[in-house]
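Hi support team,

I've been running sequence recovery on a batch of backbones for a student project. Most finish fine, but this one hangs at about 90% for roughly twenty minutes before it completes. I'm not sure whether the input is malformed or the queue is just slow. I've pasted the structure tokens below so you can try to reproduce it. Let me know if you need the job ID as well.

Thanks,
M.K.
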């Protein structure tokens, strides 16, 4: 029974008799069906292969236009899809071996061939050719994968055999490490790590230790990050290393190593971490530089804290004052040495330049600016960055930073310095205001009066306005309710008037010390009965004349205590009691409010803090006795000198 497949065969033979004999041999086989095409010359054979799709070529090496192995090589080039069986009259074993090497699937001598041998050889040749073609195709696919994917991939890949010899690496390896593939291929990876590779990393010892340990243990390597430093054509970058043993195949027992570029991700992580650290540092710095009102200490803390925000080698802070400029200079990193002195040079040009600038001034080398050269503390400093200290669009000073390293400051440094300068402006202004308050005895009291005005009169007037507006809206629809609201407006206005009288009287602090303490409490504390939510009882006996600062402090302590009771205690009755002993005066403020844990009071409690400061200021003692649910008793004792 014939096979359903018809096999097309091209016979290239110039001898008609041999051609007829071969045809008869093929027809004699009953298992396979062949369709035979003939060509008498090499040229006719090549033309036939271009036209036909033959699965097999029977080739005689001796043709009119070609002879020997050259004939086979030509046909082999033309018949990529066909198997070739050499059928020749020359019984030459060396020629046969050479023919197989060049591309023939078999080498048959005509005088030794019969029909059965010929057909079997042809079938074997086609099967071997099919397998070889498939292997070649797989190799091409693999090579395409290697060339088009791995070699062009931006993941660096190295393949090691079982002796840890590097057998292959891709182009990304050259790019990332700056080492040519020719220097890597064929070498023991362990030597490459120690001699060439580890030195490209910022932490070479850790890198080599992890890889060599993985080699020794033959296990999976955890992913780890490594930082490649820049050098020449090699760029700095972050890489993620991962490797594992090769279990099967040609390189079984070896390893595959990969390095993925994670630079963008790491830069984002670093930027986020730096921004978080900057925010935290800025918060800490704000607390630090605003924790004092002494201008010298503020400037010193500014220079000390600034190193956490923007590094520098030297700093010079120019502060605008009414009479000119003051200069704060650091002669040591961190602002440990500070000098405040009148301006010896004219800094108006610098202040004007900063006032006009929307961004900090950065110079890679201060030598580019003659006037700034004169400003720097010494000639070893190069990079410069300056930022204006602004408050409400007014430039009150300049922060000047210097570094010994050229090109030291970048855009990020400038943004951070500007943010810091805003905090410094607030701290400096507060210190300046406090400094001026020392010369103006009434400034502190006026600030307190302003707070009281806001907390009491201003809020009362706002409430009054709201009530009046509501009364006007209800006037026609609900006259009774409108009347009630207007009565409340009257009451609130009377309260505000009483508050204003007290505040106006306290604008003359000297009057508080011209009467006795008993008269002071009766005259100035009595009106607050109308505006407090508790019953106020005054039990103050006649007292001897006291030093002005003592009388004023005792009055302020009682005043602050009553403010705290009104805000927090929810008391219904408060007693202010005084007593005169032979060697001391004692004043007590007692309430029946909610009380609190005296030992657990927050350090930041401003009311308690102010009272303690006032008591310490006159050498008095202040004791607070309180507990939840049983009210509070505050005792102040001042001893006669």
């Amino acid at each position: 029974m014939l096979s359903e497949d018809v096999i097309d065969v091209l016979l290239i033979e110039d001898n008609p008799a041999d051609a007829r004999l071969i045809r008869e041999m093929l027809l004699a086989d009953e298992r396979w069906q062949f369709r035979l095409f003939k060509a008498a010359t090499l040229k006719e054979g090549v033309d036939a292969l271009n036209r036909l799709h033959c699965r097999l070529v029977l080739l005689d090496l001796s043709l009119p236009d070609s002879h020997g192995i050259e004939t086979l090589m030509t046909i082999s080039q033309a018949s990529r899809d066909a198997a070739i069986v050499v059928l020749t009259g020359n019984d030459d074993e060396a020629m046969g071996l050479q023919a197989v090497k060049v591309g023939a699937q078999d080498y048959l001598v005509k005088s030794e061939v019969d029909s059965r041998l010929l057909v079997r050889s042809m079938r074997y040749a086609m099967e071997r050719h099919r397998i070889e073609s498939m292997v070649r195709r797989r190799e091409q696919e693999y090579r395409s994968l290697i060339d088009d994917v791995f070699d062009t991939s931006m993941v660096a890949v190295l393949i090691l055999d079982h002796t840890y010899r590097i057998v292959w690496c891709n182009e990304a390896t050259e790019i990332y490490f700056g080492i040519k593939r020719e220097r890597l291929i064929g070498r023991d990876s362990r030597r490459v790590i120690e001699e060439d590779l580890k030195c490209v990393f910022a932490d070479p010892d850790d890198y080599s230790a992890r890889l060599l340990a993985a080699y020794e243990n033959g296990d999976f390597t955890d992913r780890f990050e490594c930082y490649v430093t820049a050098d020449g054509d090699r760029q700095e970058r972050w890489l993620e290393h991962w490797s594992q043993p090769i279990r099967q195949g040609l390189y079984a027992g070896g390893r595959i190593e990969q390095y993925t570029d994670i630079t963008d991700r790491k830069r984002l992580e670093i930027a986020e971490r730096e921004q978080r650290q900057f925010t935290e540092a800025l918060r800490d710095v704000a607390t630090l530089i605003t924790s004092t009102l002494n201008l010298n200490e503020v400037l010193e803390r500014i220079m000390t804290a600034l190193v956490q925000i923007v590094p520098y080698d030297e700093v010079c802070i120019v502060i605008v004052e009414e009479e000119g400029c003051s200069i704060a200079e650091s002669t040591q990193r961190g602002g440990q040495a500070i000098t405040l002195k009148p301006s010896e040079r004219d800094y108006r040009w610098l202040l004007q330049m900063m006032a006009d600038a929307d961004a900090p001034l950065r110079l890679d080398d201060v030598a580019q600016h003659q006037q700034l050269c004169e400003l720097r503390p010494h000639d070893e400093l190069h990079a410069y960055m300056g930022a204006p200290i602004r408050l409400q669009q007014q430039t009150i000073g300049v922060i000047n930073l210097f570094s010994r390293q050229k090109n030291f400051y970048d855009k990020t440094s400038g943004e951070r310095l500007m943010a810091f300068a805003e905090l410094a402006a607030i701290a400096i202004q507060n210190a300046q205001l406090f400094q001026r308050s020392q010369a103006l005895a009434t400034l502190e009291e006026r600030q307190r009066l302003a707070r009281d005005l806001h907390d009491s009169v201003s809020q009362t007037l706002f409430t009054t306005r709201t009530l009046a507006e509501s009364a006007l809206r209800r006037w026609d629809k609900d006259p009774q309710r409108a009347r009630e609201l207007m009565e409340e407006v009257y009451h609130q206005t009377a309260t505000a008037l009483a508050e204003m009288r007290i505040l106006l009287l306290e604008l003359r602090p000297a009057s508080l010390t011209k009467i006795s303490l008993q008269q002071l409490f009766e005259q100035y504390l009595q009106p607050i009965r109308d505006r407090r939510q508790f019953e106020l009882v005054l039990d103050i006996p006649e007292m001897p004349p006291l030093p002005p600062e003592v009388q004023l402090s005792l009055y302020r302590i009682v005043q602050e205590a009553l403010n705290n009771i009104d805000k927090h205690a929810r008391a219904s009755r408060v007693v202010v009691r005084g007593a005169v002993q032979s060697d001391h005066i004692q004043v007590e403020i007692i309430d029946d409010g909610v009380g609190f844990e005296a030992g657990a009071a927050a350090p930041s409690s401003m009311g308690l803090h102010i009272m303690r400061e006032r008591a310490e200021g006159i050498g008095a003692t202040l004791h607070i006795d309180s507990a939840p649910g049983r009210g509070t008793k505050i005792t102040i004792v001042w001893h006669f000198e």
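--
Follow-up from support: It reproduced on our side and the slowdown came from queue contention, not your input. Confidence is low (pLDDT under 50) at residues 331-344. No action needed from you.
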